[in-house]
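Form 7-S
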Amino acid sequence: MYSVILCTSKRAEAKKIAAVLVKEKLAACVNIVPVDSVYRWKGKLVKNRESLMVIKTKSSLFNRLKKRIRSLHSYTVPEIIELKISKGDKKYLRWVGLSTR
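Output:
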């Protein structure tokens, strides 16, 4: 089974995290997309430019990937959300499997 993990961070940090995850074979691919985020933090409305990492991996790697993101991330509470892939191109998913541990 495969998953897409969503995680936001500052742009430079996203590039660093993405490179580590792919190098360590915790992710097959990480897309980095610029986003405008609006959220409440410590009682205040916050508006930030962030980067959304769209991380493709094996579902079995989620806990290790989450731990690695936390070790590299500067946010107190980073967004780390797993979305299970119910269907996908078999060749692409096979590549994800071969590209990860």
